[in-house]
Every structure is written in structure tokens, then in C-alpha cells.
Design a protein that fits this description.
The complex is a heterodimer of chains A (318) and B (705). Chain A is an alpha/beta fold and 318 residues long. Chain A has eleven helices and eleven strands. Classes of the chains: A alpha/beta (318), B alpha/beta (705).
Chain lengths: 318, 705
Amino acid sequence: MSLQGRRQADGAGQKYLNADCLRYLESLCLSARVMVEGAYTGRHRSPFKGHSQEFTDYREYYPGDSIRTIDWKVYARTDRYVIKLSEKETVMTCYLMVDSSASMAFGGRWHEQFFGKDDVSKFDYACYLAAALCYLTIKQGDKVGLTLFDSKIKYHSPAGGTYSHLYKMVSRLEANKVGRGTSVSRALRETFPLFKRKGVIILISDLLDDPEEIFGSLDMYRHRNFEIILFHLLHKHELELPSVPSANFIDSESGERLTSIPADIRDSYHMHLNEYIDTVASTAQARKIDYQLLSTETPYQMALRDYIARRGRRWNCY
Amino acid sequence: MELLLGAILFSNPALWIGSAALAVPVLIHLLTRRTPRDMVFPTLQFIRSAKANQSSVHRLRHILLLLVRTALVLFILFAFLKPMLMRGAGFGSKDSKAGKSTVILMDASASMGYSTGAVTSLSKAKVAALGILEHHNASDHVNLILMGAVPQSSFDSLSGNLFPLRKDVRDARLTAEHADINAALAEATRQLESGPAGRKEIYLVSDFQRSNWSSVNFGVVSQNIKLIFIPVGPDKAENISITSVAVLPASPTVAEPVEIVCKISNYSDRSREVPLELMFEDGEVLSQQVLLAPRMTAAASFRLRVNKSGRYEGRLSIPDDGLVVDNRRFFTFDVTRAINILLVSDDAAGKAKSGSLFLNRAINPFWKAQDATAVASVIRSDELSTLNVTGAQVVMLSGINELPRASAEVLVNYLRDGGSVVYFHVGGADTHNLKLLAAVSEGDFVAPYTMTGQVDLSLKGNYTTLAEANFDHRLLGKFKEAGELSNLKFYGYFSTERVKEKGRILLRYEDRNIAMAEKTVGSGTILLCNFGCSLEHSDIARNTLFVPLVHEIIKSLRPSAGARNSFEVGDQCSMTTSAVAKGDDVEFRSPADEVVDGNIEVGMSGAAVFFPQTKLCGFYRIYTDGESVGSVAVNVNPLEGNLETLVVPQLRELAQIPGSNFHAAAGGQAGIDALLSGRPIWHYFLLIAIGLLALEQVLVSIWKR
């Protein structure tokens, strides 16, 4: 990456991608766990066999094959024409999907009177995370695309690997406004034809939708061997009910009102929420989807670093 | 102002201002109530699920706590308002503007004289009655009725003048009478019904003796009148009472053995042995120990022989106990020189061989009167009167004409009172007389046979004899062995037809006609002899059997037992005496030797004396020229000695009045106050408040977790 490009990125992401963030992300690397399809030679494994250092297999020579691929040492030993196959490394295509539905507008400036000025909303947190991931991906020479959705796709940017593309995406994140209802599954179905190449789908959402439908839609991608990373983002006051004496809770999407005293229902609320989180986590685990529960309480850089470190340990890939 | 809530009266009006404290928990609740703030919240579905899991009690706990705290303050306030539990709604509220009508029935009967220590039941009744009056004021209409043999009302009608009523209560004296409760209740009801409209109450202050109250008819009390029972009697009385005395025979003759039998009842749960004394006016005292089993009645007797004719006054006594009035019993009896027989006959005077002549001679076969065991006074049937028959132990009718109705009534009344009549049939008037007696008696007397005609065998020179005799009868038992009855010849008699199941047949003729039959009428007995004693009708007067038969008849029909002239205190009593003649100056005296009112009717054969009012136990006497010429014994009703009382549930069952109209209270001042002013129950309210406080603490600790 050129310095000019980096400055450009710094200037563009004043809010979601500042200098401190960039410095923090310098040392991180996000790798694909599954083989990804890329037109360019890169650092990630590709399903296409090609020229690279890593041997994968032999096969018999057929006319039409390049004679440069024949392993002459084997021919010398066996008098047979055998082609030596090697794994081709390619660039990773990362598709970022950020939920910008009304439910993501919890916390931050929207609830400043309850949680203070320092609080970060779920959507801002998701944007910080998405911007960091975009930067991380482009920084390591891979391509990244961005999709914003609520009940439908609001914005879609095809995958790109340049800093100008990064600027464009981060700018769009800043300009984005949260919508109304959520339909993660519908958004996933709509983006399915848009993601041409196999790669990594990173979905950042509070997943306040029907889990079965969400995972049903994700299964389509899994069948195409996409790697899916699920960042289940919840506000700290969603995980721990807000400490207000009494509140008229208004559903952010349906407008339904419910008056209650949080202290009275805290235990029961935790039970039901944890039950839901466990359901989502276990379903994701069963589908080999990388699931990570995030709280806005944890700084996103720390959360990202921990995730990447844990992912590296888990898949032995750094 | 007093407030009546149901049966609870709050009687401390000054603290009603404390009701403002009720607002404190409400204010605290409102001030600490959390105003919910609107908050957009994404995970509402989990809040909804969490709320659905909450119980409704948990959701309403703030309201519940508010209620508990408000109730806590309320009950503390109630405790300070001096709550009183009223047995009946509205009792005792002196502020009732309409006023109420009240009659206090205070028992002054003999049993109320029972004392434990120095306090009699009547004293307790006075305290209770004064306590009741304390809860009335001038706007009320009150009266006091003392329950004795005759109810004595302080006022003719209800009055608001309480002062004389209090005085009457204090001055009320114990009587030795048996209370006529039904009359008192009827009088109280009459006064209340004629009084002003509004609340009506009858307070019954009594010992509620079972023997007296169990027969009370509460049906006379109107449905709108409340009955308040205030027992003042002893809880467990131990009393011994002389309940009766009898002289055997009732009118003994000189030198005849006399037995004085009395009954003593032990109304206690333990055996007692008491000395019983018999005393006569001459100072002679006989005594014996009487062993009395628990709750049993024993009989004791004194045997004596009196050698002098005249009127005797006797007194039986046992040592005094809680109830003194029943420890003495007075009685009189007359000892006659011979048995007095009244022979009623219309036979012509001096007629030889008449039946009455033979009968008179058979009654007293001796020519000298002092040797006679029985003497007859002969009168005509139209001379029959109450005075005539009173002194006679047996009345014999022989050869009488058709009786006047008045004479028939005298005979029937004499029979009902225990007298004995022997009726010899000799003529046609007897058929009429039997029918007349049956008619006058209104069913009490139905002859064992009807006369269907006269049989006269004398014209043919024939006769008939007795063929059948009931020797089991006490009259004929002695003639069984001799067998002389069959020798008697009868020439004229009535043919008879048996009336089934009426009377007893003693003799029958050969032709199956009835010769002698007996029938009881009231307490007395009439012996019908279907034959005459004259020689025209039979030869019975010629037979040696005649005199013994007549005397056996007299002996068997003579009243065997009875204390004559024994009356109860409160009753009008009467006596007869032959010692008073017209023009004599008479004086009537009570047992306390005070001159009392009395009436006297002097007749041909004596005088009837009436004492219209008796108030004391003892002898009411009549004096002429300063000398007692007659007396009558007056005793307490034996039922008064049985002090077993009815308890409140039994009274409720007995009264059979709606529960709202039935109230009862202990007779003490506290009981009256509890009934009329109410029973203080502030401590219960305080206990409830403490309980509520504990409940509040428990709820708070539960819901804080």
C-alpha cells in the first residue's frame, strides 16, 4: 500500500477509520478458511490448480496439457508422462454485509439520555467493525465488497481491492441511515446472485429475525462453499437490561409498547435472551459457520483482534 | 359521633382525625412511584416473554403492598378509635334519637333467693337491671315488671321516667311465689305493642330455672321484639328441698295411727345426710336423719297417734342452705272424733224401715256418739252445698229425689277434688240423677251401666241373689272367705246394660244385672249400688253382713292420703271452719302475724274463709275473739327448689325465635356492659396491625430478592 493511498483512507474515514485504528490494524491479517476463487494470484488458496510452490497431486498427461507441467523426474523413473499439480494461491474476496435496520439504532446518540454520550450504538459499532475489516482486507491485498441492508438491500458495492474503493465504502457507511424493519434472510437471498466468486461472507447483525430463515438463507452460500462469519452484535444494555427504574419499552421496528420495571424481569429476560443466543450459536456451529457474539461494551479493535487470534488458533491460519 | 359499622361501634370520636394518616401510605406510594420513560428497545420479544413468566401477584405487588400498608394504618387507627363489639346491631347506642321501648322482666320468684355467700340471685338481678337502665335515657320508653305469681308492673305503660324505675329495682323484694312467666311475657308484649314504634326489647333477668322456663310459651312475643336473656342464677347450685308432705290418712280420727310422709329432694351431685324435724304448735319435736343420694328424692315418715280431736298445725324443717324458703314445709290436718259421713236422703222423716235409717244406724251402731268410729250427718238432697260436703270424708246418697243441677255440680266438684260418693239406687229419680251427673261432669263421669228398667220381684214373692263378686277389690276382699254375700236377698233393683270400658263391676245378680260398680271421677270415686237398704228392696239391713259392709265401704272410699288445705304462695287460698257463727268478730292474720284481708261466708253448717292474697309461707289464720279457729298452710311451690338452670343454647332452642332477635349476656355488670356498650376489641385490631406489619416485611423481603 502506498502512503498516498493510506492517507486517502485516513481522510475518508474520519469517523469509522481514524489513524489510531489504522495503527492498531497494521499487524492483523484476516485469512480465508476455505478455498476462495480469485482471478489474481494472491496469498489465499484457490480451487484452481496452478503454479505455486505447494504440491498437491499428480495426474496423467493428456494431449493439450502444457508440457511444462510434466514432471520429468517421474518420467525418468517410470517412463510415464505425469503432470504435477500444485495449489494455486489467489486473492480472497470478502463480502461484508452490515445490518442497518432500525433495531441496530440502539444506543449511541439515539439513547443519549439513558446511556450517556460515550455510548456507541449497535450500528456505529457495526460500521467501525466493517470499516476495520474493509481496511484489513484491502491492506493485505484482497478484495472486499459491502452490502447494507434492512428489510432489503439498501446499498451494494461489488468487491474491490483499492483504497479508493475503501474510501467509497467507508464514506457510504458514514452516510448511511438506519432503516425500519429487518429481514436478514431476504437480504441474503437478494445478494446471492450478486456474489459471483466464492469467498468469505461476513455478516454483522443483531440477528433479530427468525433464526431458521437466516440460517436457511446462509445455507445457500454454504452450498457454494462460501465461508461465513457471523458477528452477532448486541448492545451491552440489550445483554444487561438498562438500569432504569421503569420504562415504556417501544419496539424499534413494530412500535409495540410494553411497560415494565427492568429490575423485575432481569433474570427472566437473561434466561430468554441467553436461550436465543445459544440457539443461534449452536445452529451456526452445526453448519460450521464462524459465530462470534459481540457486545458494544468491548472496543471493536479488541474484539476484532481477539477474534482473529482465536480464528488463527482454531484454523491454524494467520 | 359514634360510628356503628356492622356489629362494631367505634366510640372514640376524637381520634377520627387520625383517618388522615390513611393518606400516608397512598402518598408514599404515589411519590415513590416510578414514572416509566419511553425507550426504543430492539429485543422487546424477550421482555414480552419475561413478563409473561411473571405471576400476576408479582406484577401487582406494589398495589398489594399499598393495600397491606393502608390496612396496617387503618387497623392501628381502628385500635385507637376504641372499637366495641356489639352483639346486636345498635344495642346501647345512647344517641339514638328515636328512642327505644324496653321492658325489663325481673324474676322475683322464690328461687331467686338462692345465695352463695351474702349475694342472692335477686341481688345480681337488681345489679343487672340497674345496668340495663344505665344504658337508657329519657328519650327511651321503659318499664319494669317483677315476675311473681302475678306480674307487677312499675308503670301501667312504658315511661321515660327512669328514676322511679331505678327505685323500684332497688326496692324489689324477694317473694316466695312461683313466677307466672307466661303472664309476664304477655304483659310485656302488650305494653311494647301499645308503646311507640321503633326498637322494642324485652330483657329477661332471671335464674332461668329449667322447671319453670321449660314450659314458657315465647310465641306470644311479636317478631319485632328482641329478647335479651340475662342469667343471674348460680352456675352450680346445691340445694335440698322439702317438696311435699302428706298425712295418712288425710283426716285421721282420735287414737288412729297417723303417718306423716314427706319427700326431700337433693339437687346436688353429692350424697347428703340431713336432720329432718317435725314440729307441732305445742312444741313437740320429732326428728330423724335422712340420707339423700345425689340428684335423688327420698321419702321420710313420722308415725304418731293423736289422742285429741281438733286442728293440728305441723312444720317440717331441715337445716338452712342456699335457698331457705324450701327448707320448711307447713301443713295442717284435722283429727276428728269419728269419720264424718254425709248421708243425703229424701226419705220421709221418721219413716220406719227406710234405707237411710238403716244406713245411719250401720254407720254408727252405737247409741253414744263418743263410742262411734263414724258418724253421719243427714241432710236432704236440696241442702247439698260445698260447705256441707267439705268436711265429709264420704257422701252417701240413698232414697233421693231428682237432684237440682246445683246439687249435682256440688257432688261432681266434690268428686273431682278427691271426695267419695256412695249412691244407693232405690227409685225412679236415680235414672235422672245419673244422667244429670254425667251431664254436669262434662264427660268426667260416665256411669258403668245404664238403667234400662226396674225389676220388682217382691210382688211375686221372689228374690234374687248375688252370683258374681270381684273379691280382688279392696272393698270385698274380706268377704270372700265368709261367703255370706250370696245369702243376701234382693227384691227390687234396676235392670242394667253395661257401658264398655267404663268403671269396674264389683257385684252382679244372678240375672247378670249389675249390683255394684265403681267409677273414678277426677281424684274421687263414686260407688254405685244397684240396690236399696230398705226392707222393700233387700234384706241386707237384716243381715249381720250389713254393718261390716258399710264400714268397709267407708274405709275403702275414705281419702287415704293428703295434706289438707295446702296452698302455694301467691295463690288465693280457702278453708272451712265450723267454729265461726254469724255475727262473730273475725280477724285474718298472715304467718307474720299481721292482719291481712280475708273473706268469710258463714253458712248453716259452717263458714268458708278466703284469703285473696298470700305472700308468705306459713299458716294463714282466722281469729275470733283473739283465738285461732282455723288455719291454712301456705308453702312455696316445690318446683322452686330445683335450681337446675337452662343454659343459653337451651334458651335459644326453647325460644325458637330468629337469631337476630335472640341475645344473651352474663348477668354481671361486665356482661351487661359488653352486651349494651359492646365488648372492647381494640387489642384484636392491634394484633391484626402487628400481623399486617409482619406480612409487609415478609412481602418486601420476598420481592426484594
